[in-house]
Design a protein that fits this description.
By secondary structure, this protein is mainly beta. The chain has one helix at about 20-25; strands spanning about 1-5, 10, 30-35, 40, 55-60. Strands 2-1-5-3-4 form a 5-stranded mixed sheet, with no helix packed on it. Strand 3 and strand 4 form a beta hairpin. It is globular, with a radius of gyration of 12 Å.
């Protein structure tokens, strides 16, 4: 299946969850948030959220500041 991750096209296997994708990319760490097709997916759902062909995924990194 093909997805877009931070505007970059990617090929990935079927039955892939968000958590599995982030683990493969070494991005499964504290302080990140994800949106799929412009909708935030709560972190507690990442383990069970299956990706679909054509998903647009955006990763956000929390930044401290004032």
């Amino acid at each position: 299946m093909r997805i877009h991750f931070n505007d970059e096209p990617m090929q990935c296997p079927d039955n892939l969850t968000l958590a599995m994708l982030l683990e493969q990319l070494s991005l499964l760490k504290p302080g990140v948030a994800l949106a799929i097709n412009q909708r935030i997916v709560p972190r507690e759902q990442w383990e069970n959220h299956l990706l679909n062909d054509g998903n647009q995924i955006v990763l956000f990194q929390a930044i401290a500041g004032g």
